[in-house]
């Protein structure tokens, strides 16, 4: 009887060992986010993978990598279906309510990517600047001044100066020619007033010309400048009325909506968003600068996309853990701090073209 009881006790013990091992195996969720997580032939690599492998080795952690999409990964982490995400998650107050964060291992910022315009598009915008409403209004006023002073000049000079201002229709043309030449300060000298009233009209026309031509030039320059800003804006606020994209459920898209961007479109990942930008479905794509830079540099199809020198929304990256993994988070955070203080960490960042802020 004792032998039988011992036998069944041994069987039960053997059955519980695999279950205990499976329970202790951490489920590590991740999704591609180059250069932090790069997947080559189904194998995860990159800065975060290197960091996690070092931490897991030092803490003797058993784990299993679980590839996931970004949004399902966050949902699984919040629900406790996975234990940890090694993606470069931005620490936010809302996320901190639903998950634990390790100590930050990298600080970054958001930036704006735009599609470069072709030479033909730039030429069209330049030409359109001359047909703006302000320019057309100025042109009409200019023609009105020329006609008015041309008729006045001809009226006063047609008898006193018939050599320069002939009678009839030809004389009116003489007056318009003289008015245009005087207004634009060209001053050919082929026609000049001789009567007192004609000279007074000429003085008024010359001073009016100086003021008006200066204003018209400024209007044209302003119109061209506005068009140039529209194609190559350097201000964050330039994009608030435009179609702007970012990745769903990220700190970047939350930032855009919190700062009153009116037309924000969410995408499942960076690749889809950048391709939409390349195909002119959106006018700008906002996301983390190191991820955008790496993606554009390594993807030859994105050669028409460039990053503007705009930096905002400083972000601190960390690993995320399920809410009940407080003790594990503290152990991982301590090890992360020790690793990022080493020269080896700086070498790894440099290999992927990154530097610490």
Automatic annotation (TrEMBL):
Protein location: Membrane
A cellular-component GO term for this protein: membrane
A Pfam family for this UniProt protein?
Answer: SBP_bac_3
Q: Which residues form a coiled coil?
A: none
**Keywords per UniProt:** Ion channel, Ion transport, Membrane, Signal, Transmembrane, Transmembrane helix, Transport
- How does this chain sit within the bilayer? Multi-pass membrane protein
Q: Which residues cross the membrane?
A: 135-156, 200-221
Q: List the InterPro entries hit by this protein, alphabetically.
A: 2pore_dom_K_chnl, K_chnl_dom, Solute-binding_3/MltF_N
Q: Which SMART domains match?
A: PBPb
Q: Where is the Solute-binding protein family 3/N-terminal domain?
A: 25-355
Gene Ontology molecular function, alphabetical: potassium channel activity
Name the chain's protein: Transporter substrate-binding domain-containing protein
Organism listed in the record: Pelagihabitans pacificus
């Amino acid at each position: 009887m004792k032998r039988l009881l011992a036998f069944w006790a041994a069987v039960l013990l053997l059955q519980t060992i695999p279950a205990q091992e499976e329970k202790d195996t951490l489920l590590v969720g991740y999704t591609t986010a180059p250069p932090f997580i790069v997947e080559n032939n189904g194998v995860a690599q990159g800065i975060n993978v290197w960091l996690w492998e070092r931490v897991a080795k030092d803490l003797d952690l058993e784990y299993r990598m679980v590839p996931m999409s970004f949004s399902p990964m966050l949902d699984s982490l919040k629900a406790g279906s996975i234990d940890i995400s090694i993606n470069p998650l931005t620490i936010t107050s809302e996320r901190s309510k639903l998950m634990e964060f390790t100590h930050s291992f990298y600080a970054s910022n958001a930036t704006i990517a735009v599609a470069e315009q072709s030479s033909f598009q730039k030429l069209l915008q330049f030409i359109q600047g001359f047909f703006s409403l302000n320019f057309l209004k100025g042109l009409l006023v200019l023609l009105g001044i020329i006609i008015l002073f041309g008729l006045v000049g001809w009226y006063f000079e047609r008898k006193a100066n018939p050599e320069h201002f002939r009678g009839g229709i030809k004389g009116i043309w003489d007056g318009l020619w003289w008015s245009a030449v005087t207004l634009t300060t060209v001053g050919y000298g082929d026609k000049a007033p001789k009567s007192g009233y004609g000279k007074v009209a000429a003085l008024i026309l010359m001073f009016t010309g100086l003021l008006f031509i200066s204003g018209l030039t400024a209007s044209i320059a302003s119109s061209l400048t506005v068009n140039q800003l529209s194609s190559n804006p350097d201000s964050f606020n330039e994009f608030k009325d435009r179609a702007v994209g970012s990745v769903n459920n990220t700190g970047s898209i939350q930032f855009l909506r919190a700062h009153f961007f009116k037309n924000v479109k969410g995408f499942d990942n960076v690749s889809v968003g950048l391709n939409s930008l390349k195909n002119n479905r959106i006018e700008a794509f906002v996301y983390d600068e190191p991820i955008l830079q790496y993606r554009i540099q390594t993807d030859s199809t994105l050669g028409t996309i460039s990053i503007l020198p705009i930096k905002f929304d400083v972000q601190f990256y960390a690993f995320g853990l399920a809410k009940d993994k407080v003790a594990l988070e503290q152990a991982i955070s301590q090890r992360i701090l020790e690793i990022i203080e080493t020269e080896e960490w700086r070498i790894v960042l440099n290999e992927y073209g990154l530097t610490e802020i």
